[in-house]
Design brief:
Chain A has 212 residues and is an alpha/beta fold. In chain A, 38% of the residues lie in helices and 15% in strands. Chain A has a 5-stranded parallel β-sheet, with helices on both faces. Chain A is globular. Chain B is an alpha/beta fold. In chain B, α1 crosses α2 and α3 runs parallel beside α5. Chain B starts with 8 loop residues before the first helix and ends in an 8-residue tail after the last strand. The chains are: A alpha/beta (212), B alpha/beta (170). Chains A and B meet through α4, α6 and α9 of A and β2, α3 and α5 of B.
Chain lengths: 212, 170
């Protein structure tokens, strides 16, 4: 079958799968967020509509793809008395899987690493990531040295396990299978979801954390 | 200025300590072992090993967001790999970080042919708009402090090119 690259192909790939809606997942997470510092990554477009503690959010979008895990890890190291929650993506992580080894090496106890895995590059039209359906990210994190890992592919399980996840010592890795939200609109016609500039985001979080 | 003929790891560590560095984010090259051994025994500095140099910029940006003062220690080969990370996490987020870069292929007599990465290093930094200081021996060591001061003042990465390929480290 000649499947065109793009949204049609992705819809065929996910047909029959039970996956998580990111917005609904974040609504549940919000109830458990507490006072944690949240780096929403590619979940940012939903998180900015849900959050009620914006000054403790770090929605940077995509300063340079592949760096979210290392950035959030660095922040977690810097503020060991604060809980740091990252919503990473599989496309980002595949660019720098070695970051997992560094994170597991220093093992910040305050770090919770959620991976949003939609099996594709959604913002570029939905092309599959390499070996999209077969990569075992939980196994990868575990073999890199994360002490605690989860694989969750439905909202009910997420709702049931989120308290347990956040109540244990980090670093914890949580692989979430999510529905792709593919963007095919040309870049210059897309509406920005960011409601603060990078400067504002960093100024706000530093002020919140009382750091220079 | 104990010895202007070579660059000692003790002098470098002293500079890091006097500039209140909290974390060294690094990926070693073959001749940095003496500095590694010193840093490992320095309680005021935490070592953060990365497995690819581009990760160093995002780790440093996170540390800086949380109020820490990291330094990046990589080789010029890895710098070239790090271009997009330097752009986004370093320059884009205005991360005031010094990157100490082993200047592989450099000699005092010009760029050495034994490794071609030297000829790309300074043009790369210039293209990225990154100012840099060359440190070849202990007589140049104060330039490390100048780099830290400039990074803090301008809120952007500054490079120190460590051009002592054959002596104590690098």
């Amino acid at each position: 079958m000649n499947i065109p690259v793009g949204i049609n192909r992705i819809l065929i790939i996910i047909k029959g799968k039970k996956m998580i809606d990111t917005l609904e997942m974040l609504k549940i997470f919000k109830n458990h967020r507490g006072n944690s510092v949240v780096i929403p990554g590619r979940g940012g477009k939903h998180w900015v509509t849900l959050t009620d503690n914006q000054s403790r959010d770090v929605p940077l979008g995509d300063p340079a793809m592949g760096g979210h895990a290392s950035y959030a890890f660095g922040l977690a190291l810097a503020i060991p008395n604060e809980t740091v929650v990252l919503f990473d993506s599989e496309g980002d992580l595949l660019m720098n899987t070695g970051a997992l080894a560094t994170i597991a090496d220093l093992a910040p106890k305050n770090f919770y690493h959620f991976l949003l895995d939609n099996e594709c590059y959604a913002t570029t039209g939905g092309q599959p990531v390499p070996n999209a359906q077969k990569v075992d990210y939980t196994g990868l994190a575990k073999s890199m040295g994360y002490g605690s890992t989860y694989f969750i592919d439905n909202l009910e399980d997420f709702d049931q396990k989120i308290a347990e996840i956040l109540n244990q010592e980090g670093p914890v890795f949580i692989h979430l299978k999510i529905n792709p939200e593919i963007e095919n609109v040309p870049i210059n016609q897309r509406v920005r979801w960011q409601n603060r500039t990078w400067d504002q985001v960093l100024s706000d979080i530093k002020s919140e954390l009382s750091v220079k | 200025m104990s010895n202007e003929g070579s660059l000692s790891p003790e002098s470098v560590l002293s500079q890091l300590k006097s500039n209140n560095i909290t974390h060294v984010v690094w990926l070693p090259d073959s001749e940095t072992n003496w500095l590694y051994l010193l840093m490992k025994n320095e309680p005021s500095i935490e070592l953060v090993p990365v497995s690819r140099e581009g990760q160093a910029f995002s780790v440093a940006a996170g540390l800086a967001t949380g109020g820490k003062k990291p330094v990046i220690l990589i080789q010029n080969t890895g710098l070239l790999e790090s271009g997009d990370s330097l752009r986004g996490w370093g320059i884009g987020l205005k991360t005031p970080v010094v990157m100490m870069i082993g200047y592989r292929g450099w000699t005092r007599h010009g760029k050495n042919a034994f490794h071609d990465v030297a000829k790309f290093t300074e043009p790369f930094l210039i293209a990225m708009g990154i100012n840099y200081y060359l440190v070849e021996n202990d007589g140049d060591i104060d330039r490390i402090t100048y780099a830290f001061e400039e990074a803090d003042e301008n809120k952007k990465p500054v490079a120190v090119l460590v051009g002592d390929e054959y002596s104590s480290w690098n």
